[in-house]
């Protein structure tokens, strides 16, 4: 592996990759908030990359649990960016991108890990003309019903089989996103102050006629091992942020917000139908979905409540 840690076995790219004039071909940006329990697995998966291309890793830490100190001790090659103020993922990415050196940028979350060919897959996706590409998010906590519930609520859009074809989609999760620097210069920065900054970024791109390239071979595994209360609170907060960002971006009037509020009792059913439809390509996921269905249903109601509060008071 070249670039992140030390020289090891090299794997040639399946398609030619445009090399940068600088030291790195790819900058990987990770945002962390109290991520001490998961960050080492994330960084170890990057340390294990089989690639002939040079890449750097920047980690933005805004927590207080010693994540930065742990990373500095265990992974001194990582470029640390610290913030005393808690940052949402979009804010952390805004902070790191100007300090990144490569022409191509990829984002990960500290509670994710990737496969050894991830860098190669990201660079292959960036050979396409699309400004932004997204990998497939898989559940990294397959032994946990709560892990499955979180996965089905958060990532079902990208729960595609490994054999699914590359195609254009409307939106991508930030934890599996990569882009040409031009994309950030044209459509950035990410909105701050809440979740769903990746959704807002995608809507700006769509308005300009650009879509996200879905590249399923760039596989990202998300881990979740927290309890029911944390799960429900996160679902509500995430969807509240989504509603607030939507209100600001589209400048929704009070009447538009009221119309959306009146439709929210239908949201859990609509999300359930959409989830089942999307999993049509991956029937192997129906069994864990059936086992986690009660938790998923609660999560969808938490998301409806979060949207209600977001539309009710979008300025909070």
What's the arrangement of secondary structure elements?
Elements: E1 26-32, H1 39-47, E2 55-61, H2 67-74, E3 79-82, H3 89-96, E4 104-109, E5 112-114, H4 118-125, E6 132-139, H5 145-155, E7 167-169, E8 177-180, H6 181-187, H7 197-207, E9 212-222, H8 228-250, H9 254-263, H10 267-278, H11 286-312
Parallel strand pairs: 1-2, 1-4, 2-3, 6-9
Antiparallel strand pairs: 4-8, 5-9, 6-8, 7-9
What does this structure look like?
Mean pLDDT is 88; it is low at 5-20. The chain is 42% helix and 17% strand. With 316 residues, the protein is α/β, with parallel strands linked by helices. The protein contains eleven helices and nine strands. The radius of gyration is 19 Å and the shape is globular. The N and C termini lie far apart (46 Å). It has helices spanning 39-47, 67-74, 89-96, 118-125, 145-155, 181-187, 197-207, 228-250, 254-263, 267-278, 286-312; strands at residues 26-32, 55-61, 79-82, 104-109, 112-114, 132-139, 167-169, 177-180, 212-222. The longest helix is centred in the last third of the chain and has 27 residues, at 286-312. Strands 1, 2, 3, 4, 5, 6, 7, 8 and 9 form a nine-stranded mixed β-sheet that branches.
